[in-house]
Write a sequence for this structure.
């Protein structure tokens, strides 16, 4: 029994060896160098308009998608008055046809809470709803302190017709060495569909280009917020890409579209007579 079992094992091993030798003829020879099994892939570099050292690697009429959307032609000069540090404030005030950009005050607590506690407003941004007026008050107090220290802090948006604070707007980030910035804003749902969003975005662009001399003004819009996307494009910005899972709000990750306005794409005459240019 043991003799026959050993014979079977030997025969099976021989069959396996013969099969492998036959199969070897169908296989390609083993590479002498590991580099031979690595396929070289040539990936065309992304051509951008605002790369390191402000080097323009694309034609002035070319966009990443190969199309020229012309959004920069929509930008307009909208600031009508400038109040440089009015009495009782150390913040420059800007006026447009319908709005005043001024420093926020603790007395704005009721107006701010009126919209900041609403999910439909917060859902257009990346901040959580305010849960109480106390929270809103603490928020405004922190802004007042930031003004005193000359930190980058948003303006309050006041509606001229009513004197109410209807939102906030400002420079979220500023890079003076390049120079470029990122803008943002919030508007109360009570003034949606009045065109104020486009007016405030264009005011922020004008301030960025004329006062801060930015060559690029960027902004973000949530992917699930077509109203802000439309406002940014109507104001002169172009969609450049997407920021997946940009921020976590209430245990949910929010993705955003990246937008930008490039000063070189706009007619320089637009800002030539801006009230901000008057020294």
């Amino acid at each position: 029994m043991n003799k026959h079992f050993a014979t079977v094992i030997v025969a099976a091993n021989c069959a396996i060896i013969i099969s492998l030798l036959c199969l070897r003829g169908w296989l390609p020879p083993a590479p002498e160098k590991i580099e031979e099994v690595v396929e070289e892939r040539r990936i065309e570099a992304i051509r951008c308009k605002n790369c390191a050292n402000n080097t323009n690697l694309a034609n002035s009429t070319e966009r990443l998608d190969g199309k020229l959307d012309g959004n920069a032609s929509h930008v307009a000069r909208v600031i009508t008055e400038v109040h440089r540090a009015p009495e009782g404030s150390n913040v420059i005030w800007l006026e447009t046809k319908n709005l005043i950009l001024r420093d926020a005050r603790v007395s704005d607590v009721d107006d701010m809470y009126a919209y900041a506690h609403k999910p439909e407003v917060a859902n257009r941004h990346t901040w959580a709803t305010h849960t109480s007026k106390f929270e809103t008050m603490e928020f405004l107090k922190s802004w007042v302190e930031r003004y005193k220290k000359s930190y980058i802090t948003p303006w309050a948006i006041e509606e001229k017709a009513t004197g109410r604070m209807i939102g906030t707007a400002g420079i979220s980030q500023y890079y003076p060495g390049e120079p470029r910035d990122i803008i943002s804003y919030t508007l109360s749902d009570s003034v949606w569909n009045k065109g104020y969003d486009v007016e405030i975005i264009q005011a922020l662009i004008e301030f960025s280009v004329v006062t801060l001399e930015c060559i690029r003004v960027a902004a973000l819009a949530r992917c699930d917020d077509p109203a802000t996307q439309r406002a940014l494009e109507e104001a002169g910005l172009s969609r450049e890409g997407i920021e997946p899972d940009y921020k976590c709000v209430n245990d949910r990750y929010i993705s955003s579209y990246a937008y930008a306005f490039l000063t070189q794409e706009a007619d320089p005459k637009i800002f030539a007579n801006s009230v901000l240019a008057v020294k």
Notes: The first helix runs from residue 2 to 24. The chain has seven helices and nine strands. The helical segments are 2-24, 109-116, 119-122, 133-148, 196-211, 226-235, 269-272.
